[in-house]
Design a protein that fits this description.
There is one protein chain. The chain is α/β, with parallel strands linked by helices and 391 residues long. The chain has 3 domains: 34 residues, no CATH class; 117 residues, Immunoglobulin-like, CATH 2.60.40.1930; 146 residues, Rossmann fold, CATH 3.40.50.1000. Helices cover 27% and strands 27% of the residues. It is built from 12 helices and 19 strands. It has a 6-stranded parallel beta sheet. It has a 5-stranded mixed beta sheet with strand order 6-13-12-9-10, with no helix packed on it. Strand 17, helix 10 and strand 18 form a beta-alpha-beta unit. Helix 7 packs parallel to helix 11. The chain starts with a strand and ends with a helix. Its main location: membrane. GO terms for molecular function: metal ion binding; phosphatidylcholine binding; phosphatidylcholine transporter activity; phosphatidylinositol binding; phosphatidylinositol transfer activity. This is DDHD domain-containing protein. It is a peripheral membrane protein. Pfam families: LNS2_PITM1-3 (PF24694), PITM1-3 (PF24695).
């Protein structure tokens, strides 16, 4: 880890503020990840590596905001510490239905999984989830009670239903009272130990437009099946933010098994990707790409629209089979027919800003993510309202 420090004692910030009040006695200007193995890399490869590392670090503007809004020592997002059960949800004592469950899951970490739900207003609204413990879903939480709480947009937490998992740890909740248009927060809580799974359910009007990003290949610059932190493609965060700021809801889709739900969600948050809906494949699937096709095709058949879709060369056929127009498919890992090939996200972002694509225009979406207590993942509209009221 390469750290550059600069002393700032007695230095006036804009001749008004003592900078020691902002930074303390020392300031970290930049933090770049510099593993020892970089010595063996050819010099031609270093610029791309350092570029990616720089844009993953905290920039100066974010640093200043954190100093005003938070106390010293702000660290990167840790979803495990941010997510918690709200005080307004009143839970009874932690009790298992079966006594032996306590010993089966002892010393095993929760491994809960599920896809965010996307549906059209008026259609059925069903939540599917699976509850296991341990690595590789070692122990399924069978025949145990789960409570589903939902916080509709602009409302309070509501208990929807309490049900029992099947022998494989799976559970399904069908909402009898339909939710209105919007993105609603879902929390599925295990009665036995009060662990939980957070999901979103997006209820969209017909014709709602989405932008799709395939996680592996288009967002990542390295392969990490074991859960190690893969590198981020240089400039991709800026492209995702571009679409997000235009008003589109982002869908992150991956062929990874749903048991990696927490790992992928944490990786996206740690690298400052904007809020989006997460879609995984079932844990046991023999045709991963076909599962992607089925997910996307179901959204289009609902009457939803995909404005743009980004992926690797393998995803081009997936998007085409699902029904996405070829001029709206972007490939970032090599020449491929039936799509637009991108040399780099930096050049692509320049093309977007210059209006090269006529379909990349502002979209007034009614889908707004609920506010979360984190500086890095504030909702775009909440941010806008904050600065409007305080400037």
């Amino acid at each position: 880890m390469l750290k550059i420090y600069e002393t700032t004692e007695k230095f006036l910030f804009y001749s008004i503020l003592d900078s020691s009040l902002l930074w303390g006695n020392h300031r970290i200007d930049h933090i770049l990840h510099s593993p020892h193995a970089m010595i063996a890399l050819p010099s031609s490869a270093l610029p791309n590596v350092l570029h990616a590392s720089y844009w993953e670090s905290d920039d100066v503007a974010a640093f200043i905001l954190k100093r005003f809004l938070h106390s010293e020592g702000v660290r990167p997002i840790n979803l495990a510490s941010i997510a918690k059960i709200p005080a307004e949800i009143k839970l009874g004592p932690a009790l298992w239905n079966k006594k032996r469950t306590k010993y089966k899951v002892a010393n095993l970490a929760p491994s809960f999984s599920g896809n965010d739900v996307i549906c059209v207003e008026g259609n059925e609204q069903i939540i599917h989830a699976r509850f296991c413990y341990g690595p590789m879903d070692l122990v399924a939480l069978s025949r145990e009670s789960i409570s589903a709480y939902i916080r509709p947009t602009g409302s309070d937490w509501q208990l929807v239903k309490t049900d029992i998992t099947d022998s494989h740890g799976k559970i399904t909740f069908e909402l009898k009272k339909r939710l209105p248009i919007g993105i609603h927060y879902v929390k599925l809580i295990v009665h036995g130990d009060h662990s939980f799974l957070d999901l979103y359910i997006a209820v969209a009007p017909p014709g709602e437009q989405f932008v799709v990003f395939s996680v592996d290949g288009s967002l990542t610059a390295s392969v990490s099946v074991t859960g190690r932190d893969p590198r981020v493609r240089p400039g991709v965060v800026d492209v995702v933010r571009y679409w997000y700021d235009l008003g589109y809801t982002i869908i992150y889709i991956t062929a990874r098994p749903d048991m990696q739900h927490k790992v992928v969600a944490l990786w996206l948050a740690l690298h400052n990707f904007p809020h989006g809906l997460l879609i995984f494949t079932p844990s046991f699937s023999t045709d991963l790409l076909r599962q992607k096709v089925l997910h996307l095709k179901s959204y289009l058949e609902m009457g939803l629209s995909i404005t743009a879709a980004y992926g690797s060369s393998k995803d081009v056929a997936v998007y085409s089979s699902a029904g996405v127009e070829s001029n709206r498919i972007f490939s970032v890992t090599g020449g491929k027919r039936g799509c637009t090939n991108i040399d780099s996200y930096a050049s692509h972002l320049k093309d977007l800003n210059e209006g090269l694509y006529d379909f990349a225009k502002p979209f007034d979406s009614p889908l707004v993510f609920p506010q979360i207590n984190s500086l890095n993942i504030l909702n775009r509209r909440l941010k806008k309202n904050f600065f409007t009221k305080n400037c």
